[in-house]
Amino acid sequence: MNPPVQQRHFTRYEFVESPILIEIPDLSLVMLEPGNLSWGGYETPERAVDQLGVKLSLPDPIRSPQAGMSVMCDLEVMSHPFPGCAAEIPWAAGGKGEAPWTLGLRISIPEGLLSRFRGAMRDSFHLLRPEE
Questions:
Q1: Cα(25)–Cα(102) distance, integer angstroms
Q2: What is the mean pLDDT of each run of 10 residues along the chain (132 residues)?
Q3: What confidence score (pLDDT) does residue 128 get?
Q4: pLDDT value at position 41?
Q5: Where does 17-50 show beta strands of DSSP type E?
């Protein structure tokens, strides 16, 4: 499901305290904290990108997430709101018995919010560490 570290296109980051909260009204009644994140969504030295990849645990979904599903979401990064982001679920697993769903979410940041989003993400760097 998740490619080995050496096969990933973007570095995945972990954190103890999530700098990001995600609201997905179509899937959950509560704000969600990602388990990790990756840039397909941040300004790198080589280029600017406009997507954020996250891995989420979804304990009590309103409906079951499916790979390929599109959803709208709102982000909060370091207490800065970023509403109206389109997202796609590239993979989803779980939902059996008591186990929560786990899913990937590829979030596209609207062009008008990119500059502010990148600034908020820069402010969060002290909370992130590359996944090993």
A1: 17
A2: 47 78 92 79 46 82 91 93 93 77 88 87 73 60
A3: 66
A4: 43
A5: 20-23, 36-40
CA distance 23 to 100: 17
Phi, psi angles (nearest 5°) of residue 35: -80, -30
The SS3 assignment for 7 reads: helix
Helix (H) or strand (E) holding 96: none
Alpha-carbon distance 91 to 114, whole Å? 25
CA 70 to chain centre: 14
Nearest to 24 by CA among 67, 79, 88: 88
Q: Which two tokens stand for residue 1?
A: 């499901």
Q: Which of 73, 68, 77 is nearest to 85 (CA)?
A: 73
Q: What pLDDT was estimated at residue 34?
A: 86
The residue among 99, 118, 127 whose CA lies nearest residue 33 is 127
Residue 68, φ and ψ in degrees, nearest 5: 90, -10
Q: Token digits for 120? A: 């908020």
Q: pTM score, two decimals?
A: 0.79
